[in-house]
Design brief:
fatty acid metabolism; 2-enoyl-CoA Hydratase, Chain A, domain 1; globular; binds ligand LTMAUQNL; ClpP/crotonase-like_dom_sf; 10 strands; seven-stranded mixed β-sheet; Enoyl-CoA_hydra/iso; alpha/beta
């Protein structure tokens, strides 16, 4: 390794504090200069959101809330995938108890991220379908690297995005645009996403995406943190409260829907298609 690279790695290690251990499916790194935490998802190959990744995401968000970070940047350790969304294996021929825990954890993770008191931004360094798009749209700002796709493609899988997925989407897109995209299960390219407003900026690399997220979080430097966070909470309170009030019904509805034979059949065919595509590559 070149000496300069070694020196830069040493310098980086000195100015960043690793808050979470590598045994988790997420890591949190706080930059000592900016005070901003980078939360990285690391569940190869596609950051499929299974029960364990959702648990780690929630505890990492809690960690950032608790360690007085100035902001949270969500990203991925993969070079091509931000998150492939919910791990379909959690929903296909599911175990009765595990699928309950899985959906309950997804609700909790969304409540924590969408309702986070710190400024949040997503550095979308890869594809971001469905649950991946949910995470990105739960943040306040999105910067995306070119040649990837993002969107809520649920109808393409024969499933329906729950109301709170729609709420995140609607916090970013106008109703007409959101409704059409959801009905179509449309995946947007980076360029299309920028044009429609689903993302805020593009960046040529993950590093540049993170820099732009840092700049966004920096725009709050002179704003009173309590006033900022209470204002954010007020904007999001109705969406958060709606899920809080309906958590049990939402779970039962999901379980009923996902256990329908036609839905199971559709998920099986979709998974098979993914596996065939992977084998061809
Ligand atoms: C009234 C309403 C009430 C209730 C609602 C009820 C139901 C609604 C519930 C939930 C909403 C659902 C949300 C979701 O997030 S569903 C998941 C949607 N995700 C996708 O469609 C993405 C599928 N994946 C891809 O398109 C590609 O994999 C991707 C572009 C992400 C990456 O492509 P790449 O070529 O790099 O990798 P692959 O070779 O395709 O994949 C590698 C490996 O990973 C497996 N894989 C991929 N995605 C998933 C996934 N989401 N879950 C599980 N497994 C996944 C893929 O099969 C390959 O596996 P293997 O062949 O074993 O290597």
């Amino acid at each position: 390794m070149m000496r300069s690279k070694v020196l830069s790695l040493v310098a980086r290690a000195a100015s960043n504090r690793m808050m979470s251990t590598a045994t988790k499916l997420t890591t949190v790194e706080v930059n000592d200069k900016t005070g901003i935490a980078t939360l990285t998802m690391n569940r190869p190959p596609v950051n499929g959101l299974n029960l364990e990744l959702l648990q780690d995401l929630k505890s990492s968000i809690d960690e950032v809330e608790g360690n007085k970070s100035r902001g949270l940047i969500l990203t991925s350790s993969s070079s091509t995938i931000f998150s492939a969304g919910l791990d379909i294996l959690e929903m296909y021929k599911p175990d009765k108890d595990r699928i309950r825990a899985f959906w309950t954890q997804l609700q909790e993770t969304w409540l924590a991220l969408y309702g986070s008191s710190v400024p949040t931004a997503a550095a979308i360094n890869g594809h971001s379908p469905a649950g991946g798009c949910l995470l990105a749209t739960s943040c306040e700002y999105r910067v995306m690297v070119p040649n990837f796709t993002i969107g809520l493609n649920e109808t393409q899988l024969g499933i329906v995005a729950p109301k709170w997925f729609m709420a995140s989407f609607l916090s970013v897109l106008p109703q007409r645009e959101a409704e059409r995209a959801l009905n179509q299960g449309r995946m947007f390219t980076t360029e299309e996403a920028l044009k429609v407003g689903l993302i805020d900026e593009t960046a040529n690399s993950k590093e540049e995406a993170i820099e732009k997220c840092v700049a966004f979080i920096g725009t709050f430097a002179k704003v009173n943190p309590l006033a900022r966070s209470l204002t954010k909470q007020q904007f999001r309170a109705a969406d958060l409260q709606q899920l809080q009030n309906e958590r049990q019904q939402d779970l039962e509805k999901f379980l009923f829907f996902v256990n329908q034979p036609a839905v199971q059949k559709g998920l099986g065919i979709y998974l098979e298609g993914l596996k065939k595509k992977a084998k061809k590559q």
